[in-house]
Amino acid sequence: MAGLNELSSELSDTRLEHSQITAQSKQSRPAQWLLLLYRVADIIGDKRPEVRNGAFQTLLRMFKNHAEDLSTDGWQLCYETLILKILREDASRHKTTQDGVRSTEITVAMELTSKTLLEETATLLSENLSAISDAKAFDRLWSEMLLVFQEYLSCSSAVVVAADFTALTTLLRVLSAGDQKWKPAIKEAALVWSAGIPVVKEQNAEQEAYLAYVDCATEMYRLTKAHMTAEELKTMALDLYECVCASSGGAHGMDTNNPTPLQTKVLECLRVLRTDLDSVASTLIKIASSFVRLPFDDPSHPKPKTSLTFVALSKASMDWLVELLTAHITEEEVFTSNSIARSLESLVIPIKRKYTWKITGKGPTPWQRATLSALAITEPALRQLSSTLLLPQDVKTRLWRATVKVAHEIMHADLSTHPQPSLSQLEKDETSDCENLVRLRNMLIPGLGASFLPDSLRNTYVSSLFHASIIHKLEHDDLPAATQPPVSDLYKLRLGRVRDPPPTPREEMAYLCLGELLSLTSKPAQDVKDVEERTRLARAAAPWLVRRFALPIKAYIADQPLRGSMPMPLSQVEELEFCLVRIRELVCEGEALNSDEAEGSGNGTRARDGERKHLKLLFPLLVDAVGVAGDMRHGSARILEELRRVLEVAGVGL
């Protein structure tokens, strides 16, 4: 076979035709070798798969056994007249028959042949690429080979497309990013990869093609990362993201505990992408946020039709999201692009669905991991926000609004689903939520009182505290209309009820939220900084606190006479006593209740304006409650004593 070197030297500048080789074979031993190779190559086009595969394996063994005997010109001759010819004809067969009707058996056989041709040819070329690359026509031959690869991609067969990208990856692995001679070849290969994610016609069979595509992306990035532009990086990242979203393979639940191989590879590839170029980091944060919300039925981000759950991917993406934001939290662009706010908005979804989302995988659950991730993001984000003065107001407001949403979902839990978690699990989760809420509260206060934030946002936060503090289920007329201030209709009593609702299973959280309302309304024990911020928060919280104090008093006035000699439920006694003690002890921030809606209830108390104004507002209810507690039949000396102490503070003796 070494004689081929002589023939290739003579004809190195000529593109040989089959007839030329046949004519020369009568006088030339090398031409006879080449003719033999041509005959074997012709057999590879046989209709019988076993014949095709056998002929190709024979051809490969001939090349492997004599690879060292071939010169650069010899390789060029074989590359052009044999290898490219075999691949081109095989790709052409797919193109000719892809629109026709073929049996499954024939289709599978053709695909397996193409898979073998592509992968084995790529292995052969990669092992001898240094010799082949020295050929004069290497650039042209490389371009022609990539054109053949593109033809294979148009077959839309998952097996063939996967083999095509695997072959390209095999060739790219032996290239060096630092060697300038490979630069044109790498650039052309990049065009093949960047044409878009694979399109295959078989449903639920694209996993193999996507895996090969991602492997190829890894090699492309290794070779081109030093010179990639921000747009190229973002395009690569979005294409990888699209692979995950378009994937539908796998049995139900296979990605609940662990990500699929495709999801794992995509995450690995995305995590190593450069983020030092403009807006690349925000693009990756956006992708991570989308992965987080992918399992959940969010109308604005519909989940693809697939048997995959994406739960394990979502949880893994939460960790990646924290890593990204922690690394880039000092960059103004992640704020101005709303990347941080968007991340928190995504994390809110699993937190909100803590008990309504049943597919959790192995611990921790999605909502637990999302809660910790949100806290890990919020702390440095708010700290950086306070030192970044040039951000647009709408950017700051959206971030604060997202943070308040996180707080709201930590406070609340939808317990209407069946079956409910066990009491022990509820207690464990509630304890965790209380700890997380305290941690988040320390981040929010007093920054939430900043002048650039709208009053509506503060009202949203204190309203969430109010509703989470409800221990016993309310009746529809216990609260004013949504458009009315919290203290409107404060003295209007509902009809009494004879069935006492049980206390909420999250009683610890309820008392914590009530305590937070008290803390926001109360006058600080000592001089503090940020007086204006705390005053704004006190003004937002105080009306809700007064309403919250009024609820158990009004319930006692309405319900207790109907109980007769029946004892008041212990949980209601504890709530009423808690509120009466706090009413007596509360010293409000001076401006907390100086609002128009809090001015309307004159009642003759001697409570000082400002610091004790809550007593003035609650006085009529307290007096009515005294009448109920002092009744001989349904009264309570215990409650009456607490009421007496409150009225003494208000300056009224009994």
Q: Which features would summarize this protein structure in a list?
A:
654 residues; mainly alpha; 0% strand
Account of the 3D structure:
With 654 residues, the chain is mostly helical. The protein has a domain at 545-649. The protein is built from 26 helices and no strands. The protein has helices spanning 4-10, 18-24, 29-43, 49-65, 72-97, 104-127, 129-133, 138-153, 158-173, 183-193, 207-224, 230-246, 261-271, 280-293, 311-328, 332-336, 339-352, 366-387, 393-411, 423-444, 455-468, 507-521, 531-563, 570-585, 613-629, 637-649. Helix 6 packs parallel to helix 9 and helix 22 (507-521) crosses helix 23. The N and C termini lie far apart (119 Å).
Strand content: under 5%
For the residues shown, what is the average pLDDT?
85
Please tally the helical runs, counting DSSP H or I stretches of 4 or more residues. 26
The proportion of residues forming helix, as a percent range, comes to 55-70%
- Elements, N to C (H/E): HHHHHHHHHHHHHHHHHHHHHHHHHH
Number of strands: 0
The gyration radius over C-alpha positions equals 37 Å
Major β-sheet annotation: none
> What's the overall geometry?
elongated
Distance between the termini: 119 Å
SS-derived structural category: mainly alpha
Unreliable stretches (pLDDT < 50, length at least 5) are 7-16, 24-29, 596-608
